Amino acid sequence: MNLSDSLVLMEKYAQCPKCKSDKVGNGAGTLEVEDDTFKRTCKCGWAVLVKKGLVREDITMIEKALQVFPKSYVYRNEELILEPRNNVYFRLVDVETEIDFKCKMFAWVSRPIAKSLNKYWAPRVLKSFNTLMDTNFTKSDMYLIYDRLGNDVNRKLTIRFIESGYDMELLKR
User: Fold this and answer.
1) DSSP E strands: which ranges in the chain?
2) Dmax over Cα atoms in the chain, in whole Å?
3) CA neighbor of 114 nearest in space, from 89, 77, 140
4) What are the beta bridge partners of residue 32?
């Protein structure tokens, strides 16, 4: 990232919009500028990521996913690789809010847990999924979730499900 672009972004994001802090370092927040990435975080949990002109202001779920799923990483094509050995991933291109992120989790991670991961991997990925989403789903819950929400077949129902606090009754026909 060139210096003039970095300076514009530093001025724009100098102050956290949530808590108004303008501090970085010593646990108060971070500022990272790399080739094509600008990232600013705050101790209150707010974060912004600018990559090639794409702005994401709520990346806390992405950061949490990277902590919860062992060996997870973001690949250069904006793919969040949650479990590399079994290729459990989804693209971050259209994720702009926490709801978008959660919809992607249900759409693209429910199937591997319910159907394709073996008896060793399915419980491990499910445990990480539950930790990340602050849920307590079982594998049988994931079958129903995949049936109704998997592959992003019903985004409106997925949003209603998330907003309801994960009411499984919404998914029963």
Assistant:
1) 29-33, 37-42, 47-51, 54-56, 73-75, 79-83, 88-91
2) 56
3) 140
4) 39
Asked if the model's pLDDT at residue 137 lies above 90, the reply is yes
Res 148 pLDDT > 90: yes
Give residue-wise pLDDT tens across range 41-83: 888 777 888 876 566 665 678 888 988 999 988 887 788 999 9
- What is the DSSP code (8-state) at residue 82? E
What are the tokens at 19?
Answer: 């808590």
Provide the 8-state DSSP code for 173.
-
User: Could you tell me the residue ranges of all domains in the chain?
Assistant: 1-57, 59-173
Q: Residue 89's beta-bridge partner residues?
A: 81
Tell me the DSSP string of 122-156. Answer: HHHHHHHHHHHHT----HHHHHHHHHHHGGGS-HH
Q: What is the pLDDT of residues 123-132, one digit of tens each?
A: 999 999 999 9
